[in-house]
Amino acid sequence: MAVIGVGIDVCDLARFAASLERTPGLRERLFTPAEATRPPASLAARFAAKEALAKALGAPGNLAWHDAEVFSEPSGRPRLELRGTVAARAAELGAVHVHVSLSHDAGIASAVVVLES
């Protein structure tokens, strides 16, 4: 296995929560129905994960937000599920393993994504 992409992103929690309040359709536009039920800090971390994933994929402009979904395994470990436009780009690059780490503390949410062949 070789690393073929790495992405990182951070998101200010207060600013993100204010954006969700100010723009009613934002939650539905960015997140799948399963993700959208989570609290703002968790959504900010998931948004950072989607941004980090886009960076790891080379930031093509045709990726759909709902084509990447962050799940929590029973252990609490986050996992990214790729489909549609995002899965197609990952396949184009030869990515078969996706690793994601999320955190939120001190008013900041962060995420790192590593793609491996």
TrEMBL record:
The keyword Lyase does not apply. Belongs to the P-Pant transferase superfamily. AcpS family. Keywords: Cytoplasm, Fatty acid biosynthesis, Fatty acid metabolism, Lipid biosynthesis, Lipid metabolism, Magnesium, Metal-binding, Transferase. Its EC number is 2.7.8.7. The keyword Protein biosynthesis does not apply. It is found in: Cytoplasm. This is Holo-[acyl-carrier-protein] synthase. It is an enzyme of class 2 (transferase). NCBIfam families: acpS, pantethn_trn, PRK00070.3-2. Residues 5-97 form the 4'-phosphopantetheinyl transferase domain. Its main location: cytoplasm. It comes from Nocardioides marinquilinus. Its cofactor is Mg(2+). Signal peptide: none annotated. Mg(2+) binds at residues 9, 51. It catalyses: apo-[ACP] + CoA = holo-[ACP] + adenosine 3',5'-bisphosphate + H(+). Transfers the 4'-phosphopantetheine moiety from coenzyme A to a Ser of acyl-carrier-protein.
